[in-house]
Specification:
The structure is a homotetramer.
Chain A lengths: L5 H11 L3 E3 L2 E2 L11 H13 L6 H4 E3 L6 E3 L8 H17 L8 H13 L12 H14 L3 E4 L22 E5 L3 E12 L6 E4 L13 E6 L5 E5 L15 H4 L3 E12 L3 E4 L2 H10 L2 H31 L5 H26 L2 E2 L5 E2 L2 H26 L9 H4 L4 H7 L7 H15 L2 H11 L5 H11 L3 H11 L3
Parallel strand pairs in A: 1-10, 5-8
Antiparallel strand pairs in A: 1-2, 3-4, 6-7, 7-11, 8-9, 9-12, 10-11, 13-14
Amino acid sequence: MGAINGEAFIQRIDKLGTEIWFDGAKINGLLSEHPHFKGILQSKASLYDLQHDPNIKEEMTFASPKTGEAVGLSFLQPKSKEDLYKRRKMIQHWAAHTNGIMGRSPDYLNTVLMSFASSAELLRNQKNCFPEHLIKVFENARDRDLSFTHTFITPQVNRSQVYIENSKLPIAAKVVGETDQGIIIKGARLLATQGGLTDEVLVFSVGRFLFNEDEAFAFSIPSNTKGLSFICRDSFLGGDSRIDHPLSSQYEEMDSIVVFDDVLVPWERVFYYNNGDAAEEFFEECSFHAFAKHQVLIRQIVKTEFILGLSQVLIETINVREFQHIQEKMSEIIIGLETLKALLERSENNAALDQWGYMRPDVTPLKVAGTLFPKLYPRFMEIIQLIGASGMITLPTEKAFHSDIREKLDLYLQGATKTAIDRVKVFRLAWDLSMSAFGTRQTQYERYFFGDPIRVASDLYKSYPLKTHTDKIGKFLNLD
Amino acid sequence: MGAINGEAFIQRIDKLGTEIWFDGAKINGLLSEHPHFKGILQSKASLYDLQHDPNIKEEMTFASPKTGEAVGLSFLQPKSKEDLYKRRKMIQHWAAHTNGIMGRSPDYLNTVLMSFASSAELLRNQKNCFPEHLIKVFENARDRDLSFTHTFITPQVNRSQVYIENSKLPIAAKVVGETDQGIIIKGARLLATQGGLTDEVLVFSVGRFLFNEDEAFAFSIPSNTKGLSFICRDSFLGGDSRIDHPLSSQYEEMDSIVVFDDVLVPWERVFYYNNGDAAEEFFEECSFHAFAKHQVLIRQIVKTEFILGLSQVLIETINVREFQHIQEKMSEIIIGLETLKALLERSENNAALDQWGYMRPDVTPLKVAGTLFPKLYPRFMEIIQLIGASGMITLPTEKAFHSDIREKLDLYLQGATKTAIDRVKVFRLAWDLSMSAFGTRQTQYERYFFGDPIRVASDLYKSYPLKTHTDKIGKFLNLD
Amino acid sequence: MGAINGEAFIQRIDKLGTEIWFDGAKINGLLSEHPHFKGILQSKASLYDLQHDPNIKEEMTFASPKTGEAVGLSFLQPKSKEDLYKRRKMIQHWAAHTNGIMGRSPDYLNTVLMSFASSAELLRNQKNCFPEHLIKVFENARDRDLSFTHTFITPQVNRSQVYIENSKLPIAAKVVGETDQGIIIKGARLLATQGGLTDEVLVFSVGRFLFNEDEAFAFSIPSNTKGLSFICRDSFLGGDSRIDHPLSSQYEEMDSIVVFDDVLVPWERVFYYNNGDAAEEFFEECSFHAFAKHQVLIRQIVKTEFILGLSQVLIETINVREFQHIQEKMSEIIIGLETLKALLERSENNAALDQWGYMRPDVTPLKVAGTLFPKLYPRFMEIIQLIGASGMITLPTEKAFHSDIREKLDLYLQGATKTAIDRVKVFRLAWDLSMSAFGTRQTQYERYFFGDPIRVASDLYKSYPLKTHTDKIGKFLNLD
Amino acid sequence: MGAINGEAFIQRIDKLGTEIWFDGAKINGLLSEHPHFKGILQSKASLYDLQHDPNIKEEMTFASPKTGEAVGLSFLQPKSKEDLYKRRKMIQHWAAHTNGIMGRSPDYLNTVLMSFASSAELLRNQKNCFPEHLIKVFENARDRDLSFTHTFITPQVNRSQVYIENSKLPIAAKVVGETDQGIIIKGARLLATQGGLTDEVLVFSVGRFLFNEDEAFAFSIPSNTKGLSFICRDSFLGGDSRIDHPLSSQYEEMDSIVVFDDVLVPWERVFYYNNGDAAEEFFEECSFHAFAKHQVLIRQIVKTEFILGLSQVLIETINVREFQHIQEKMSEIIIGLETLKALLERSENNAALDQWGYMRPDVTPLKVAGTLFPKLYPRFMEIIQLIGASGMITLPTEKAFHSDIREKLDLYLQGATKTAIDRVKVFRLAWDLSMSAFGTRQTQYERYFFGDPIRVASDLYKSYPLKTHTDKIGKFLNLD
């Protein structure tokens, strides 16, 4: 089978009949025809088509070590810097196709699963751990080009530092039973982006499990597994018009609460369970951080280029290039872009083979990028708003341009270098990126991609090697 | 007649039949029943009803010096500090009713018109100036409780510092002719908030007119004047549900481009025209800045209290009060609120009678507030997003709570101190204020209320008296 | 006796013979002639002379309720708003004389002692508490115009949140014994500004005393008490030239570690001891916060005016007024100044009588100012550096102007509106305020005036009333 | 001769007898024994000794293409990436020796001169241009290991945008005559760091010369040339104690005004004169920006490592590692450091041969670093002050530790992990770096290294290629 195209993807998803709740109703009919899901599914399909684009097919696939078929390169377990550069190229292709706007293009989760599988040995010979299941799930995904979402956050009932859940019914998903067929899961997880829109859902655990080892598990199951359902948030799709809603009409990905109603996870799907130490160690030491952050950074660079281009087009549209504060704001975006690119290069320059022979990018520059981008992105959105000023509000609809008042719009809304309709397109895009419900959700998404920014910053400090530097101070001052 | 109630307001607006274009179509039928306008019109009606609320009627009206009838207190021309405090009280009532969310509650424009009329003497004996027309229009408005919008910005074709319009057809509205009945206006103005939803539209000019004196004019005409039309931007109404869209369902005010298609403005409606010097001097020296900024600051204080309360409710809902960075963020809002309140007090403490006997608040602290709030408000919105975190995304719809999955929502979405539905209400409000298309338009609105923030800051510096302070340095250093 | 003049102050301090260690040696000879102390003592003397300046004497003194003599108005226990305004006026006079640069002008500690005495009733009938001693010490200070320093911070060995001192010898000053004559104190306190340069030292405790009740005490003793010594830090006096070191030559106040080497504190000097609860309650509820913060804010306003004047003189000197980023920076200082003034007015507007009949300023706006200024001041210093640019470095000495190269300096260092010598004076002042060792110590001093800025912000939040605001949200959303 | 050692450097400088004015007097006697210059000269001497350190000599020198002798590697004109890496290594050695504190270590100006010589062909066949003089001066410098300062800024009389000098006597240095021996220069330049402390002074022009072509020249002359003199600013040397003044005792570099009193510059020393176009083109297109920014960034990275180490030692000294705001501040320094390192790598990765065969680092990432560091450095200094808090003030002198009170200091000033003396050393260093007059001059120096930060940011924007990015927007939106 190997790398699929868009049509195959759509057919497979439509066939699943996953239980999805949207706006108080269970979805019936084909998902790909649902007004709120057709846009994102078509966009995903067009991404899969890239794998068969003759111009780049070579850069998008590789021969499966198992079947020899051409499979998606995001599943490639890199063993050399060359492999790493290939991965970068492939990620750039995926990202460029959506200008970095689609947060969960398939390569992200393929990368996550690849990193897990490449670190499966960490689970070897540990209680309740099944590395071979993990490898099998990975190989199956690779050779059939399955798509995934993941979920690892527990419901936000109480974020206090010392909270212990004491509800009678499980809130956070837990192992509530165990049979000869598998483990039984009850409770919820949130927030799965594209939850329900993928072949499978990858469930794993992050954090500490001193008091609740029954929350320490990892597995992957098909989205249409019995007892599994997805509850969607409100949709941020603005409408179908590509002019009025250039982004949300294509890229509204949806986020869902994942509900496990006594879901049976078959043994061959379980990677580990009821082993907090193994769960923590696995998450800490596997190559997830290196590979996932590598993918994310590449996408964010493409997105930043999009932001930079858009900002400049705004500037030209209303001719504000000469203002010094505009120049300073643009220099901020440029500094951000160049910094991200440089950090990516540094992570690749300093990549090294891990203990199992996989070429990991250096995680430190990637962590730095992961701490920086959540601050840069909201500022970029603010800069766009500050450049656009009142133009961000003066937004007639596409229909108005097809009505009797077109002539007036053409006259009064023209830009310095643009016709009225082009000007409106530009401002609509700026608005959809930074001010629509779709856009602000993207801001929140980028801000919290790797978790609470405060914690991310603390972690960077705690994990950073400082001894060489403090030793130099000791020597300079002749300290005892 | 005097101060009207909500019903009278609605009837009058419905009767006008103003030419309004929305989403490519001219509005027919009653405006108050149009899905995109009924919310804001009902909210405005409820504001007018306040004038007849027996508990506060005394604080909302005063006896017209002309008719003796009880008229709206926002039309009061204050002659003492007592009058000023009365005005503050009245503005607080209006603002509290919408928590400061409605930017253009009627008192704003009533205040603007009052300030113009109170400075009419500036126009006395100047070429093409008619102070008595201004006074008459004001008295008519006061005694009939007319509602207004205003418009003073020209289209944003080209914001370069040296731009001169050279289109064949007027883009910015201009005087294109003059008859014995009045002046003829052609071109556009933007962006009138609630444009089309008021009895009249007040048109005046801001800025320098060295090269285009034909843009220097001021008048007020009924919204349904022949040749006058309003082109709406896209609507930011999210929907009718008070739970899903607690703010936009009530307060989406709409902004419009105002088009003058050879509109005849009768002489008795013209305040001045074709006199750039008079226009500049009038805008510079009239009491507009003092009284409008006084009204705006009072509303912004009420809004800031709403933001503070909401932030605290968010904190309690997910129990994050103990985090130090949360405490620091809350202290930012508190500092902002107390600062605004103090600046308001200072402007009233230092109020003084102007040359025509009206008690003007001190404009300097008001200018400071007007420079500060555009920076504070976006930061407040960011703080709400940072407190809410992923909860700002986990937003099911009201309908979901009326469906079979209610039980699951109740379980998984409960807050530390709230039921699931209450928790969702709280986060929905936080989202509608800071992240919906309605909310981000509010941010842009507050950011640009008194114009380009860069220019506002420069103006504060240029107008601030510094000599006392520089003299002290000279003395301290014995400078020549 | 009553309010003293400068000469009397100098004589009294010289006579004390306090044990002060400076740069590795014990000071012998007259303190007022010591190169590192004469500047500050003369500046203090000139402040005392203000009390006898015929133009303002009335505003600087009042009749002692005990002796009827004219005593310093900083000792006035205000019973009305009039009294509060009198206090403000007096503080402004003191502050204006040093442009707010002297942090510990005598009125500060006089105010502290006044606030303690005015709250003495809090100590009534509590274990180990002696309210009448406190009142007596206060009356004696008032009627003899004694000067004070204070010290309430323990040595910064370990700032960890759970640190418990376990040194064999006391590090933080403790009660180590008790005789019929008084209590015995051993250990150190830091950092007393002007420690050793005042008649007495006021020692009291701040914070929690769960495990170390022996650190909970308060008393005042003469600086020359046996066993008491002051260890100075390095001096930040740059030199005697008023041109080269316009500030440090006059206002270098010195900070000292206060060492108690088995110091006997006579009973009549002890306010309380070994009573942690009383100490905490006293510090929490006495009027110290209200009155001290009132004095400090008035001084900081005067200092901010000085900063604003200096910045403008810098701008004029090198003619950079037209640059927009300069205008924006100046608007920042203006916003800061107006905000501080407004907060002061608000604290006075809302002043109220406390339970013992004293008119306390509202502490909330003062707390806000106390949270704000530590952020504003360092930014102001940065703005001065950004305006001055390379001119902050191009600093020849006064001597160079009295040498053969004067002509060259006159030519090459002239400013746009200033002679070379005046230009150098201006930049020297800017440098001494923001970049000399004296200046940066001032920055640190203002930043930490009321303690760790993080904690100050948290306290503001924790003590701020929020219920009214959260109730409104509950009502708006119809929460349960 | 080739690469010299420290002793040779000192002897040469002492022998010059350059005319230097310090604190109103002309310096007589040996410069290396002058209290205010001996520290920096010894530090420079120790840098030259590095060239003969057997461990790194190979990395510090290369064989002169002319003499075959080992000459300083900072003079190497790189022709390959290998050469570039060699240069990096050498710069790191110089920088590490002073922890990046010495801004003008000899490699900086050697690099500048090397870059000029490597671009000499730009001057070929242009009016009044002498590329062969430039090459000769460079080769002489390389083979004799001469040291340089440079000066290119005109006096800051009036920084207005439209200022035209109209003094009768030249203020900015100008060509005032021309003989068969050379050109005559009169006027001043500022601010030459280490002016007077080097063998030669390199004078060149930056900027536009529409109205004053007589200011467009470049040459290098010995410091003791007749008519040339250096007027020092005040010294920021705090004292000789390495404990009290660990940095200023070694690295106070001094800045001087350079005065030309009818100085004759011999023709063989003139690179160009009276040719504004050539001057502008040369400065714009020569490899100065690439190579100088490369050297500067490497030094700034070393300095940032020093800052990071010092901050961590401070944290350990008072045990504040657990505070979250401390962790966040440290993450800021780490982000800064990693970003600078990544930008350096990127500039080297993308280095390319210029038209004359020299391997230039990519200037864009270097420009980004040059825009970023002036913002990072002052923030780093603020972070140090915020970590150190009151400890930055509690600074006894070394002498105090050699006096009778040592025991008390040992007890009361001990740190959590340090003896009192070590603790004081650490805080003294933090103070000397961030708060002494030496430290704040360093801050201003880093802030303005490549000129006005506002202009640097504007230049980054104006020179950055944007078309690829705007084209993508056009394509995405189907713009005309």
